[in-house]
Amino acid sequence: MRKLLLVALALIVLVAVPGPAWSHPGRGFGGPGPAGHLAEPLSADAVDAYLRGALDATGLPGLSAVVTHGGQVVHATGLGRDSTGRPVTPDTPMRVASLSKSFTAAAVLSLVDERRVALDTPVVTYLPEFRTADPRTGRITVRHLLHHTSGLSDRTLDIGATQRATTLTGYLAALHDGTLTGEPGSRFEYCNVNYDVAARLVEAVDGRPFADALRARVFGPLGMGGSTVGDGPADGYVSLYGAWVPRAELPGFRGGAGGVVTTASDMGRWLISQAGHGPQVLTPDARATLHGPPPGEDYAMGWSVEVEEGRTLLVHSGNLFTYTSVQAFDPVTGHGFAVLTNSAALHDDTYDILLGLSALTAGRTADPPGGERQRIDAVLVLIAAPAAGLGILGALRSGRWACRRTGWPAVAGLIWPLLPVAVFVTSPQWLSALMNGRAVTWAQLTYFPASLTATLAVTAAAGLAVVVARLTRLARRPGRDR
């Protein structure tokens, strides 16, 4: 029994290692061909056939996607249904989580174009209320925020307090007791706080609420009439042992880091503008700044820069517990991609679908992705079910165990079954460590990692049941007090 539980714990740790949904916003990206190669135009029929196959293979409840090339939309579509039973279309509103950062950065740079904001000016110049308990906060510049090099970190700020805020002003007030992890500008550390502070900066300088400012500066000029900041979509889904369970989005602050709600149709307009076509909200210099990371880093401003086979692509993914999304565009070929889903799981199928779309633009065959989420959930079921059985068996055999164990063997027999309990109780901490210090709460663990959390709970309950049963039998053992 001990060996089986230890194997189960090892498998749980392997499954829990962050996959695409939990990793850095920019990840390895298979490009459509050698640098400088302009792929032949991709047909809408080819895109549609691939996406329909991807929906079937992944089992996603619904998805919308768009592919652009230069100044044209190759194809925009919606497949599946939302949690109310309505068909998903290219105009179905979807939460895009951290894709919001690219829009927030564009709003800031529009103010830079107007010379109302300077990137290398300290943020406190525009937001005197921006402070933490660390005096170095006064040296954080606007550029530091947008590059995630400010020193702000989930590890040293009260993220729970920020999520209870109802306004950007209240959000900044929740930072006052925090500290920085290092000198501003010294190193990259992904932290949503940077972009919510940037949103408050936009609000303060523009003179309008952030949602209104973003609409006026980005969404309106680009014709993104289905885009906003805040609420709007139907409830999404989480995966629990292979089944999609509808759930309301986890409550929390919706600002510049993850508050945008948009559609595949609107994402097409956004990607076209990022490629330098159609209506523009930024000058060419500002757009180049938006896409350019600092020396030695790969994160620009709401875009992660990836080099694959000598070609440079810009990518960003997003996960907001019940919705998942990814966007990318290739400055060389002019292709843009966005995939949005109304679901979330341990494995991010949107990124796999994006890779297939990229392959299609290069004229390569792309098999629809799928099965990874189902395999992960199957492994977790195969861990949870035997663990529950072992717990029951261990409790039933506790009397026999108590008769044969004395001294240190008895102590060991009471300690090792508590290992799953320790793993479960500390899961927010070790998952946070696996996610490079990103804050993880118990509430979050019941969303897209729901299958993992349930398996951890089952193994912990099994171990605890064995310990309680053994202690009870030891207490009743004849001659215990002699």
UniProtKB/TrEMBL annotation:
Keyword list, A-Z: Membrane, Transmembrane, Transmembrane helix
Transmembrane regions listed in the UniProt entry: 378-396, 408-427, 447-472
Protein name: CubicO group peptidase (Beta-lactamase class C family)
InterPro entries: AmpC-like (IPR050491), Beta-lactam-related (IPR001466), Beta-lactam/transpept-like (IPR012338)
Coiled-coil regions listed: none
Residue ranges constituting the Beta-lactamase-related domain according to the UniProt record: 47-355
Biological source species: Catenuloplanes indicus
Keyword Transmembrane helix carried by entry: yes
